[in-house]
Write a structure and sequence with these properties.
- 2 copies of one chain form a homodimer.
- Chain A is of the alpha/beta class and 218 residues long.
- Helices cover 52% and strands 12% of the residues of chain A.
- Chain A is built from 11 helices and 5 strands.
- The first copy, chain A, has a 5-stranded parallel β-sheet, with helices on both faces.
- In chain A, strand 1, helix 1 and strand 2 form a beta-alpha-beta unit.
- At the A-B interface, helix 4 and helix 11 of A face helix 4 and helix 11 of B.
- The structure holds a DNA duplex (30 and 30 nucleotides).
Chain lengths: 218, 218
DNA sequence: GTGCACGTTGGACTTTGGTACAAGGGGACC
DNA sequence: GGTCCCCTTGTACCAAAGTCCAACGTGCAC
C-alpha cells in the first residue's frame, strides 16, 4: 500500500491533492499535516511513508530550509515540492536540494494526477512548459545542497540555531546536551560546510531562504 | 548650480536621466558612475553633490545594502532610488532607509522630469499609481533602518565585513587599524543594532539584501 | 558477528570575541 | 576658543568559540 503525507496549510488544496492521489493509486493511505513540526512528527512516528508532498510556504518551512531539513532527517522519503511560486530558479534550487518533483499550485486535477503518478514511479516531474527552462538553468545550489545534505539531523538542528544567533550554551540547553557536544557538532558542521567559523556557517544556512530577508525580520 | 550624480550601470538609462535633468533644471552639472565604488569615490571627492540617482541593482549595490551604506557615509545627500523592480514592499523599504524617492526604470521622460523636479524641491516622490499602495504598507524596515542609520561610516564598513564572516583580525588588516579598534567598533555596533554578538549583527545586516540569498552565493 | 554512522562526553588547550574604563588627536560646528 | 563626534589606541580581564586527542553506547546494515 502506498502511504503519502500531504503537508500544506491550505485545507482546500490538501483535498485536491487527495483526489489526485485517489485517481492514480488504489488504496492510498493519505495523511495530512499543516505545519512543518507536525510533518516532522508524522515522518518520525510512522517510518513507512513513501512520499511527502511539501508546500514550500507552509508555516515553519522557511523557503528551502524546511526541505533541506526534511532531506537531512529523512533522506529515504521522496519529497515533491508544492508552491504557488513558479519561478524556474526556485524550481531549479528545489531539485538541487533533492526534491523529486515540483508541482505548481495552479495545476489542475489531471496535472496533479500525472505528477503524482510520475513521482510514485520514481521519475522526477516538473511542469512540462517549464521543463526546458529549468533544465537550461545551471545548477544554482548544487554545491550548497551537497554540503548541507551531508549534515546529520542533529547537526542540522544545531546549525539552525547558530543561524539564529544563539550561543553554544543556549543551543546545548535547548537540545538537552552538554556544550562540549555542541562544539563537537560545530567542528563537524564547519568541515562539512567548508567554512571556518559560525558566522560563515550561519550565512551559508540562510542562503536556503527564499524571500526578502526583511520579511522574516521578527 | 545643481549638481547631480547618476549611478547606474546602464548607459542608455543614464542618458535618459540626463535628458530629464536638462528639461527641469537649467545648468545642471551631471556626473555619472557605473558601480558603487565609483559612486562613493565621487561623493567623497566632490562634497557639493545635491542629489544622487541610485540604481538598486548596480554592481556593488547589494539590494538595500548600497543605499544604507551611502546614507551612513553621506547623510546629507538626497538619494533617489531607481529600479526595474516595482514591488511596493521594496519601495516601502527603500523609503524607510531614507530614500527621497523611487523611480521605476519603465518611466517615460515626462515622469522622470516630474520626479526629479519634485525631489529637487525637497519633496519625496513615488509613482502616483503606487502611492496609495506604498503608503498603506506598514513600515517594513523602519526599526532596522533606524538602527543601521546610527552607524558611523567606519562602523558600517566593519559590519559589512563581519557579515561576510571575516575575523576581527582580518578586518583590522584590511582597514589598516588595530584589532582593538575593531573590537571597539564591534561593541558600538552591537549597542546600536541591539544585538549581542557578531552572528546576530551579520544576520541583521543581511536583511538589507533583496534577492534570493543563493544568487549572491559566490 | 563485524563494521559503521551517529550522538554523546571527557580533558586539555589555544584562539577569538567581547566588556569595562580611560584617553588623545583631528575635524566640524557655533 | 570651546564643544562634540569620530576614530583611534591602551590596559586588563573574562567569556565564548574552536581544536585535538580519545572514548563509549546504540542501532543499523552487510
Amino acid at each position: 500500500m502506498t502511504r503519502v503525507l500531504i503537508a500544506d496549510d491550505h485545507p482546500l488544496f490538501r483535498n485536491a491533492l487527495k483526489l489526485a492521489l485517489d485517481a492514480c493509486v488504489d488504496s492510498a493511505d493519505v495523511l495530512e499535516a499543516e505545519d512543518l513540526d507536525q510533518t516532522r512528527r508524522l515522518l518520525a512516528d510512522l517510518d513507512d511513508i513513501d512520499l511527502l508532498l511539501l508546500d514550500l510556504h507552509m508555516p515553519g518551512s522557511n523557503g528551502l530550509t524546511g526541505l533541506a531539513g526534511i532531506r537531512c532527517e529523512f533522506p529515504a522519503v521522496a519529497v515533491v515540492v508544492i508552491s504557488a511560486n513558479e519561478d524556474p530558479a526556485v524550481i531549479r534550487r528545489a531539485l538541487d536540494h533533492g526534491a523529486a518533483g515540483f508541482i505548481p499550485k495552479s495545476s489542475g486535477l489531471e496535472v496533479l494526477t500525472e505528477a503524482v503518478t510520475a513521482v510514485l514511479d520514481c521519475r522526477t516531474w516538473v511542469p512540462p512548459h517549464l521543463h526546458q527552462t529549468v533544465a537550461a538553468l545551471e545548477a544554482g545550489d548544487r554545491d550548497l545542497a551537497a554540503r548541507i545534505a551531508r549534515l546529520t539531523p542533529q547537526q542540522f538542528r544545531v546549525l539552525q540555531m547558530v543561524a539564529d544567533g544563539r550561543l553554544n550554551k543556549q543551543i546545548a540547553d535547548r537540545l538537552g546536551i552538554q556544550e562540549r557536544t555542541v562544539k563537537a557538532h560545530m567542528s563537524e558542521i564547519f568541515a562539512k560546510l567548508e567554512v571556518r567559523n559560525r558566522t560563515q556557517a550561519g550565512i551559508a544556512f540562510r542562503r536556503l531562504e527564499l524571500v526578502d530577508p526583511s520579511s522574516i525580520s521578527r
